[in-house]
Amino acid sequence: MSKARFIGGILGAALLWSGTAQATPPTSQQLCDNMRVTAWKVYRSCVESLLAKAVKGVAFDVNKSSWVCRHAYFKKWTNFQTKASLAGSTCVAANRFTSTDSGATVTDALTELVWEVKSASGVHNGTDSYSWSSGSNSEDGTLFSTFLTADLNALGFAGSNGWRLATYAELMSIMKDFPCTHAGGSPTCICAGPCVAFTDANTQSGIYWTASSFVSDPSAISIDFADGNTDTDPKTDNHFVRALRGGF
Q: Is residue 108 one of the residues assigned to a domain?
C-alpha cells in the first residue's frame, strides 16, 4: 500500500468515527459529567485569579472575593436540579452530600470528591492537629508523614490508598454558603462555625490546613472553620486536617 493511500485510509476512518460519534446524542450522565467538569474549571479559575492577585501584593478583601467564587459555584448544583436534560443522572439528587462507606466518608455529587468523616477518637479524631512541615518548607510534617501516609494510605482507609490534603479551592467547596456582602470581619461575612456544609459532629470550629503553598514559602493557606475566613500560617504550626480523594 502506498503512503498516500495509507494516510488517506486513516483520515477516512477518523472522519467516519467522528461522524458516528456526533450522530449519537450524549446521555444524561455524559451531560452531567460535562457540566460538572466545566463548572469546576470556572470555579478553580476564579480561585486561582484571587491567589494570583494576593501574591502580586494587590490589596483586596480575600474573604468576600472567595465567597463570590464559591457562591457562584454552589449555584450550579441548584441549577442542575431544574435541567430536564440531566434527569436520571447523578447531577440530580435530593442531597448534594451523601454518606458513603458505611458513614466513614461523605461524597459530594457536585465535585465528585470523597471526604473523610471525623470521629471522636482514633485515627480520624477530629481534635487531632498536625504540622504541615518540620521547617524545611517540604511536605514532611506530621499531617503528611503520620496522618496521610501511616494512618490512612498505608491502612487503605475506606478501600483506598489515594488520600491527600485538599487544595484551597477544594477545601472551600465544603464550606457553608454563608452570606458575605461586606468587608471581611463584619457580621455579614462570618460563618457560624463549624463552617462545614455537611453533617459531621466532630468538625472543629478552628483552623484547617490546605495543600496550597509555594515551595519556597514558609507559610501555607489555611481556612478557619470558626468563621470561614482565609489566612496563611507558618507550616510548622499545628492545625486540623481533613483528607479527601478523587477529583477531576
A: yes
The rounded distance, in Å, linking the Cα atoms of 203 and 128 is 11
Phi, psi of 50 (to 5 degrees): -65, -45
Report whether pLDDT(14) > 50.
Answer: no
Q: Are 236 and 139 in contact (CB under 8 A)?
A: no
Long-range contacts of 99-107, Cβ-Cβ distance < 8 Å, separation of 24 or more:
100/158, 101/158, 101/159, 104/157, 104/158, 105/158, 106/198, 106/200
The per-residue pLDDT for range 21-47, each reduced to its tens digit, is 557 899 999 999 999 999 999 999 999
Residue 4 in domain: no
**pLDDT digits over 147-197, tens only?**
999 999 999 999 999 999 999 999 999 999 988 876 555 667 788 889 999
Tell me the pTM. Answer: 0.88
Q: Which domain holds residue 176?
A: 24-246
H-helix or E-strand spanning residue 231 = strand 229-234
